[in-house]
Amino acid sequence: MMQVKRIIDANANRVREALRVMEEAARFLLNNKDLCSQIKSMRHDFAAAISQIPNLESQRDTTGDVGTSVCTAREYERSNTKDVAIAAGKRLSEALRAIEEYGKVLGPVGVDLVRAVEQLRYRGYTVEQSLNIALSYSCDADWQLCLLLTRVMCEHHTWEVVLKEAIKGGVDCVQIREKEAEGGLSGRALVMYCKEVVKICHAADVAVIVNDRADVAMMCGADGVHVGQQDVGCDELRNLFGGQMLVGVSTSCIAEAELAWEMGASYCGVGPMFATTTKDKKVIVGPKYLNEYGLWGKLPGLAIGGIEPSEEKLEALRGAGMGEEGMRLGMAVSGVICRSEKPGEVAADLKSLFNG
Ligand SMILES: Cc1ncc(COP(=O)(O)OP(=O)(O)O)c(N)n1
Ligand SMILES: Cc1ncsc1CCOP(=O)(O)O
Ligand SMILES: [Mg+2]
């Protein structure tokens, strides 16, 4: 019986640790209050269940545990925060299952524990799935400066020079925005162009999003697609692509953001912030909405519309919470970089908002 208690004690520690790691991901990586409280309540319910077995810790013998010195190289390999949370989810179900199986040997004293742990294991599967989906949808969309690249807007340089200079200036995401009705590329030429953009961006570790066209995004190897309120629905895209693609959705109020989140969006466009000549926008929601969005906090957001590196505009964005830890706010600009003689300098000036 002592060995069984030792096994249960070791696995109880694993469960507690795994739940903590998952909770931190929901809290700090995703800002997801619902998921965070689900995991927290699992932690509390597990503590109540395990407390039914008296004196578990008395069987602990960490120094005499032969398993502490047995490890595999993969245990030390995690390529990103997403992998850390995914590994914790796997550990959680393994440890719960071990407690459940060995708990059966405890006889009557273990019956309630086994039942409670079985239920926790099922809850764990659901939470693990929600966490992994949320991480694969939105974990990689925390950008600071996104360039909406439109070829016909590049007045002073080729699109290639604008793109490369902007990347040097600190752009970490590029949205390819070609509008056929405004002289932009379409069809085969659009796909070829997008492939060139992807090549340049990915070599510099910059993400690529294609405006409006999920099909083109897939064909050119982009990271995702951006859709507006009148475009194809985010839910339809998720049905089609699962977690393979990032999906951005334009929003002008929290109700739209909430809907986008429910449909599996990765990030939201948040705007328009200021008057713009790039797109016909009747209503300017301004930095007030940006602040509401940042406090809502379920998805990363890109402020958009008329953004320039003027002291006044940057101050307004800063005042709304951009650059603040935990707000997950970046900006998306088009004209100010595409139309500039010095696209790299403009990008760097915008990016300075995040440097303290
Ligand atoms: C980051 C970001 N936010 C908003 C938009 C606008 O999208 P949409 O409303 O679909 O308008 P078009 O860009 O398609 O004209 C965006 N593209 N990017
Ligand atoms: C596409 C779009 N959607 C809302 S405002 C806007 C235009 C952004 O361009 P600019 O940065 O030139 O104002
Ligand atoms: Mg659109």
UniProtKB/TrEMBL annotation:
Keyword Lyase: no
Binding site for 2-[(2R,5Z)-2-carboxy-4-methylthiazol-5(2H)-ylidene]ethyl phosphate: T276, T277, T278, G306
Ligand binding (4-amino-2-methyl-5-(diphosphooxymethyl)pyrimidine): Q175, I176, R177, E178, K179, N211, S250, K279
Biological-process GO terms, alphabetical: thiamine biosynthetic process; thiamine diphosphate biosynthetic process
Catalysed reactions, as listed in the record: 2-(2-carboxy-4-methylthiazol-5-yl)ethyl phosphate + 4-amino-2-methyl-5-(diphosphooxymethyl)pyrimidine + 2 H(+) = thiamine phosphate + CO2 + diphosphate; 4-methyl-5-(2-phosphooxyethyl)-thiazole + 4-amino-2-methyl-5-(diphosphooxymethyl)pyrimidine + H(+) = thiamine phosphate + diphosphate; 2-[(2R,5Z)-2-carboxy-4-methylthiazol-5(2H)-ylidene]ethyl phosphate + 4-amino-2-methyl-5-(diphosphooxymethyl)pyrimidine + 2 H(+) = thiamine phosphate + CO2 + diphosphate
Sequence ranges assigned to domain ThiD2 in this UniProt record: 6-129
InterPro entries: Aldolase_TIM (IPR013785), ThiamineP_synth_sf (IPR036206), ThiamineP_synth_TenI (IPR022998), ThiD2 (IPR041397), TMP_synthase (IPR034291)
Function: Condenses 4-methyl-5-(beta-hydroxyethyl)thiazole monophosphate (THZ-P) and 2-methyl-4-amino-5-hydroxymethyl pyrimidine pyrophosphate (HMP-PP) to form thiamine monophosphate (TMP).
Name of the protein in question: Thiamine-phosphate synthase
Source organism of the structure: Poriferisphaera corsica
